[in-house]
Amino acid sequence: MVEPPLTTEQTLTARLRADLSAAMKSRDELARSTLRMALAAIQVESVAGDTARELSDDEVLAVLRREAKKRREAAEAFDGAGRPESAARERAEGELLATYLPQQLGDDELIELVRAGIAESGAQGMRDMGKAMKTVQTLVAGRAEGGRVAAEVRKQLP
Question: Which of 98, 128, 147 is at the close of a domain?
Fold first, then answer.
């Protein structure tokens, strides 16, 4: 059901809508409900603020990252509460959303980017962590979760 990478004329929102239509036609309940939820979150974000506006693909990706993170956290909560079927559903929704996100960095790639970011920022120790994080986050550009990045920065700072 997931389409090939985006073409220049197709926005991420348009791809989500097309995939929703395909999910409805194929009667894929999980994909249908997950994509509806994602499109609703995108719509809420687009009308937040003073005026309604069309979100850029980067803004849509931020919404999808946030929704995927909510699914992971909900799955952990359901596991802790002894509700494995609800946890499995949340995980499946999170995995579906992850197919729209850029490929996550591997550990080796993250270590190298953090090393480069710390060198570029000139951070000397833990007191400079904020400066290092700012530089590293621009290098990572949403391809790794903030907690994972922060842990690696802490590990590498003297």
Answer: 98
